Amino acid sequence: MSFDLERIWESKREYRRRLAMLPLADKLQMLDELRERALTLRPRATGIPPPPREVISEQPPDYRANQG
Amino acid sequence: MRIQEVIRTINQMQSDGVIQRYAIGGAVGATFYLEPAATLDVDVFVAFKSDAGSPLISPKPIFDYLKERGCNMEGEYVMIAGWPVQFLPPTSPLVEEALEQAVERDVGGSIARVFTPEHLAAIALQTGRGKDMARLMDFMEFDEMNADRFEEIVKHHGLESALDRFHQQFGRGNT
Known about the structure:
Chain A is mostly helical.
Protein backbone atom coordinates (compact mmCIF):
# COMPACT_ATOMS: atom_id res chain seq x y z
CA MET A 1 0.00 0.00 0.00
CA SER A 2 1.43 3.31 -1.02
CA PHE A 3 0.33 6.90 -0.56
CA ASP A 4 2.30 8.06 -3.53
CA LEU A 5 -0.38 10.12 -5.27
CA GLU A 6 1.34 10.00 -8.64
CA ARG A 7 1.29 6.20 -8.56
CA ILE A 8 -2.33 6.15 -7.39
CA TRP A 9 -3.42 8.42 -10.27
CA GLU A 10 -1.42 6.36 -12.73
CA SER A 11 -2.99 3.11 -11.53
CA LYS A 12 -6.45 4.66 -11.80
CA ARG A 13 -5.70 5.84 -15.34
CA GLU A 14 -4.40 2.39 -16.21
CA TYR A 15 -7.57 0.74 -14.86
CA ARG A 16 -9.79 3.13 -16.86
CA ARG A 17 -7.68 2.47 -19.95
CA ARG A 18 -8.18 -1.28 -19.49
CA LEU A 19 -11.93 -0.76 -19.18
CA ALA A 20 -11.94 1.34 -22.34
CA MET A 21 -10.13 -1.44 -24.21
CA LEU A 22 -12.60 -4.18 -23.30
CA PRO A 23 -14.53 -5.77 -26.19
CA LEU A 24 -17.48 -3.61 -27.21
CA ALA A 25 -20.06 -6.26 -26.34
CA ASP A 26 -18.65 -6.44 -22.78
CA LYS A 27 -18.73 -2.64 -22.42
CA LEU A 28 -22.34 -2.50 -23.59
CA GLN A 29 -23.24 -5.21 -21.12
CA MET A 30 -21.64 -3.07 -18.41
CA LEU A 31 -23.92 -0.20 -19.48
CA ASP A 32 -26.91 -2.52 -18.96
CA GLU A 33 -25.66 -3.38 -15.49
CA LEU A 34 -24.83 0.23 -14.57
CA ARG A 35 -28.32 1.32 -15.56
CA GLU A 36 -29.96 -1.45 -13.54
CA ARG A 37 -27.90 -0.44 -10.54
CA ALA A 38 -28.84 3.22 -10.97
CA LEU A 39 -32.52 2.28 -11.16
CA THR A 40 -32.22 0.25 -7.97
CA LEU A 41 -30.48 3.04 -6.07
CA ARG A 42 -32.59 5.95 -7.29
CA PRO A 43 -35.93 5.23 -5.52
CA ARG A 44 -34.07 4.48 -2.28
CA ALA A 45 -32.16 7.70 -2.52
CA THR A 46 -35.22 9.74 -3.32
CA GLY A 47 -37.34 7.88 -0.75
CA ILE A 48 -35.47 9.59 2.10
CA PRO A 49 -37.54 12.53 3.37
CA PRO A 50 -35.72 15.81 2.84
CA PRO A 51 -34.44 17.62 5.94
CA PRO A 52 -36.40 20.67 7.09
CA ARG A 53 -35.59 23.72 5.04
CA GLU A 54 -34.11 25.63 7.95
CA VAL A 55 -31.54 22.87 8.54
CA ILE A 56 -29.97 23.15 5.13
CA SER A 57 -30.42 26.37 3.37
CA GLU A 58 -28.29 28.26 0.98
CA GLN A 59 -28.50 31.80 -0.20
CA PRO A 60 -28.77 31.86 -3.96
CA PRO A 61 -25.66 33.34 -5.53
CA ASP A 62 -25.78 36.94 -6.62
CA TYR A 63 -25.61 36.56 -10.38
CA ARG A 64 -24.34 39.94 -11.40
CA ALA A 65 -22.16 40.18 -14.42
CA ASN A 66 -19.87 43.00 -15.48
CA GLN A 67 -19.36 44.47 -12.06
CA GLY A 68 -15.96 45.70 -13.18
CA MET B 1 -32.58 -4.91 -20.27
CA ARG B 2 -30.19 -5.22 -23.17
CA ILE B 3 -28.69 -2.45 -25.19
CA GLN B 4 -27.68 -4.85 -27.96
CA GLU B 5 -31.37 -5.54 -28.49
CA VAL B 6 -31.93 -1.79 -28.86
CA ILE B 7 -29.29 -1.75 -31.60
CA ARG B 8 -30.88 -4.73 -33.36
CA THR B 9 -34.30 -3.04 -33.25
CA ILE B 10 -32.91 0.17 -34.73
CA ASN B 11 -31.17 -1.78 -37.49
CA GLN B 12 -34.45 -3.53 -38.23
CA MET B 13 -36.18 -0.15 -38.45
CA GLN B 14 -33.61 0.89 -41.00
CA SER B 15 -34.02 -2.32 -43.02
CA ASP B 16 -37.80 -1.84 -42.95
CA GLY B 17 -37.38 1.69 -44.30
CA VAL B 18 -38.77 3.48 -41.25
CA ILE B 19 -35.61 5.52 -40.84
CA GLN B 20 -33.06 6.42 -43.46
CA ARG B 21 -29.85 6.77 -41.55
CA TYR B 22 -29.07 6.71 -37.85
CA ALA B 23 -26.16 7.07 -35.48
CA ILE B 24 -25.79 6.52 -31.77
CA GLY B 25 -24.48 9.49 -29.81
CA GLY B 26 -24.33 10.57 -26.17
CA ALA B 27 -22.88 8.41 -23.42
CA VAL B 28 -23.68 5.16 -25.22
CA GLY B 29 -21.88 6.43 -28.33
CA ALA B 30 -18.90 7.47 -26.22
CA THR B 31 -18.76 3.97 -24.70
CA PHE B 32 -17.76 2.66 -28.13
CA TYR B 33 -14.41 4.42 -27.57
CA LEU B 34 -14.07 5.09 -23.84
CA GLU B 35 -14.70 3.29 -20.58
CA PRO B 36 -18.42 2.63 -19.94
CA ALA B 37 -20.09 5.49 -18.07
CA ALA B 38 -23.46 5.11 -16.35
CA THR B 39 -26.31 6.51 -18.39
CA LEU B 40 -30.05 6.22 -18.17
CA ASP B 41 -30.99 6.56 -21.83
CA VAL B 42 -29.88 6.04 -25.40
CA ASP B 43 -29.60 8.95 -27.84
CA VAL B 44 -30.23 7.92 -31.43
CA PHE B 45 -29.85 10.60 -34.08
CA VAL B 46 -31.90 9.96 -37.18
CA ALA B 47 -32.58 11.55 -40.50
CA PHE B 48 -36.37 11.79 -40.19
CA LYS B 49 -38.55 11.16 -43.17
CA SER B 50 -41.24 13.74 -43.87
CA ASP B 51 -44.86 12.56 -44.01
CA ALA B 52 -46.14 12.13 -47.55
CA GLY B 53 -47.13 15.52 -48.91
CA SER B 54 -45.83 17.40 -45.89
CA PRO B 55 -42.68 19.48 -45.80
CA LEU B 56 -42.43 18.84 -42.05
CA ILE B 57 -40.31 16.07 -40.67
CA SER B 58 -42.06 13.79 -38.24
CA PRO B 59 -41.10 11.07 -35.76
CA LYS B 60 -44.60 9.57 -36.06
CA PRO B 61 -43.62 6.66 -38.36
CA ILE B 62 -40.98 5.65 -35.80
CA PHE B 63 -43.45 5.73 -32.91
CA ASP B 64 -46.13 3.89 -34.92
CA TYR B 65 -43.66 1.20 -35.95
CA LEU B 66 -42.41 0.64 -32.42
CA LYS B 67 -45.88 0.75 -30.86
CA GLU B 68 -46.96 -2.01 -33.23
CA ARG B 69 -44.08 -4.06 -31.87
CA GLY B 70 -45.16 -3.60 -28.27
CA CYS B 71 -42.90 -0.73 -27.25
CA ASN B 72 -44.32 1.85 -24.85
CA MET B 73 -43.91 5.60 -25.05
CA GLU B 74 -42.79 7.43 -21.94
CA GLY B 75 -42.77 11.15 -22.55
CA GLU B 76 -40.34 11.83 -25.33
CA TYR B 77 -38.81 8.36 -24.96
CA VAL B 78 -39.64 5.01 -26.48
CA MET B 79 -38.93 2.03 -24.26
CA ILE B 80 -36.99 -0.61 -26.19
CA ALA B 81 -35.68 -3.70 -24.39
CA GLY B 82 -35.99 -1.87 -21.08
CA TRP B 83 -34.03 1.18 -22.25
CA PRO B 84 -35.56 4.61 -22.79
CA VAL B 85 -34.51 5.58 -26.30
CA GLN B 86 -34.74 9.10 -27.61
CA PHE B 87 -34.84 9.65 -31.36
CA LEU B 88 -33.36 13.02 -32.18
CA PRO B 89 -33.18 14.94 -35.44
CA PRO B 90 -29.86 16.56 -36.29
CA THR B 91 -30.45 20.05 -34.91
CA SER B 92 -27.19 21.72 -35.92
CA PRO B 93 -24.78 21.56 -38.85
CA LEU B 94 -22.30 19.82 -36.53
CA VAL B 95 -24.74 17.04 -35.66
CA GLU B 96 -25.81 16.79 -39.29
CA GLU B 97 -22.18 16.28 -40.30
CA ALA B 98 -21.70 13.78 -37.46
CA LEU B 99 -24.69 11.78 -38.69
CA GLU B 100 -23.40 11.82 -42.25
CA GLN B 101 -19.89 10.71 -41.28
CA ALA B 102 -20.86 8.16 -38.61
CA VAL B 103 -18.99 4.87 -38.73
CA GLU B 104 -20.09 1.26 -38.45
CA ARG B 105 -18.93 -0.94 -35.59
CA ASP B 106 -19.49 -4.63 -35.05
CA VAL B 107 -21.31 -5.39 -31.80
CA GLY B 108 -21.37 -9.11 -31.16
CA GLY B 109 -22.41 -9.91 -34.73
CA SER B 110 -24.65 -6.94 -35.49
CA ILE B 111 -23.61 -3.61 -36.91
CA ALA B 112 -24.12 -0.36 -35.04
CA ARG B 113 -23.69 3.09 -36.53
CA VAL B 114 -22.02 5.49 -34.16
CA PHE B 115 -20.61 9.00 -34.29
CA THR B 116 -16.85 9.24 -34.76
CA PRO B 117 -14.87 10.07 -31.60
CA GLU B 118 -13.92 13.45 -33.10
CA HIS B 119 -17.57 14.34 -33.64
CA LEU B 120 -18.61 13.07 -30.20
CA ALA B 121 -15.89 15.26 -28.68
CA ALA B 122 -16.90 18.31 -30.73
CA ILE B 123 -20.58 17.82 -29.81
CA ALA B 124 -19.55 17.57 -26.14
CA LEU B 125 -17.65 20.83 -26.53
CA GLN B 126 -20.65 22.49 -28.17
CA THR B 127 -23.13 21.19 -25.58
CA GLY B 128 -20.84 22.30 -22.76
CA ARG B 129 -22.44 20.76 -19.66
CA GLY B 130 -20.20 19.47 -16.87
CA LYS B 131 -20.54 15.84 -17.97
CA ASP B 132 -19.81 16.84 -21.57
CA MET B 133 -16.58 18.52 -20.48
CA ALA B 134 -15.64 15.38 -18.55
CA ARG B 135 -16.29 13.32 -21.68
CA LEU B 136 -14.16 15.65 -23.78
CA MET B 137 -11.34 15.33 -21.25
CA ASP B 138 -11.62 11.54 -21.47
CA PHE B 139 -11.35 11.62 -25.25
CA MET B 140 -8.20 13.72 -24.94
CA GLU B 141 -6.70 11.78 -22.05
CA PHE B 142 -7.24 8.38 -23.63
CA ASP B 143 -5.91 9.59 -26.96
CA GLU B 144 -8.98 8.11 -28.59
CA MET B 145 -9.33 10.60 -31.38
CA ASN B 146 -7.38 12.16 -34.17
CA ALA B 147 -6.43 15.56 -32.74
CA ASP B 148 -5.97 17.17 -36.18
CA ARG B 149 -9.37 15.98 -37.33
CA PHE B 150 -10.95 17.20 -34.08
CA GLU B 151 -9.45 20.67 -34.48
CA GLU B 152 -10.58 20.75 -38.11
CA ILE B 153 -14.17 20.07 -36.98
CA VAL B 154 -13.85 22.66 -34.20
CA LYS B 155 -12.72 25.31 -36.69
CA HIS B 156 -15.30 24.37 -39.30
CA HIS B 157 -18.10 24.79 -36.78
CA GLY B 158 -16.80 27.94 -35.11
CA LEU B 159 -16.02 26.33 -31.76
CA GLU B 160 -12.48 27.74 -31.39
CA SER B 161 -13.33 30.07 -28.51
CA ALA B 162 -15.17 27.25 -26.69
CA LEU B 163 -12.05 25.08 -27.10
CA ASP B 164 -9.82 27.90 -25.83
CA ARG B 165 -12.03 28.25 -22.76
CA PHE B 166 -11.89 24.49 -22.26
CA HIS B 167 -8.07 24.51 -22.45
CA GLN B 168 -7.89 27.44 -20.00
CA GLN B 169 -10.08 25.60 -17.53
CA PHE B 170 -8.79 22.05 -17.89
CA GLY B 171 -5.39 22.19 -19.58
CA ARG B 172 -4.46 20.92 -23.00
CA GLY B 173 -4.67 17.13 -22.51
CA ASN B 174 -3.08 15.32 -25.42
CA THR B 175 -4.20 17.68 -28.17
